[in-house]
Design goal:
alpha+beta, Peroxisomal Thiolase, Chain A, domain 1, two-stranded antiparallel ribbon, two-stranded antiparallel sheet, 4 helices
């Protein structure tokens, strides 16, 4: 399975998103019209007013990153590392093979903190 998706002969991307952990899964989810929004599973949302969210399900960072390294990273950082490495791998690039003036990384994170218990306060 390809970890990144080919957009054109010169453009590749890696993806960590709520439709699928990797770029190909993301693209297939888009084509199928699948939503990644569902009841929250990363923590118990029972005491919260909102109980749905867009979560990336089935992502195990240790499938891609050393266990000790993964434990030192927030989840959004793990996703960024995996997606970036996937795009580089899919492009067939090795160390020093890319022109740094033609390579970019875009990371979108709503909050940046991945620990749900630190993000929200339950409703009374």
């Amino acid at each position: 399975m390809s970890y990144g998706a080919k957009i054109s002969s010169d453009h590749r991307f890696g993806c960590g998103n709520l439709r699928g952990a990797l770029a190909e899964e993301f693209w297939q989810g888009c084509l199928a019209g699948r939503s990644g929004v569902a009841r929250i599973t990363l923590f118990d949302p029972t005491d919260f007013a909102v109980q749905i969210a867009g979560e990336l399900k089935g992502f195990n960072p240790e499938d891609y990153i050393d266990r000790i390294e993964a434990r030192r990273m927030d989840r959004f950082v793990q996703l960024g590392v995996v997606a970036s490495e996937a795009a580089v791998k899919d492009a067939g690039l090795g160390p020093g093979q890319a022109d740094p003036r033609r390579v970019g990384v875009l990371i979108g994170s709503g909050v940046g903190e991945s620990e749900p218990s630190r993000l929200s306060t339950p409703t009374s």
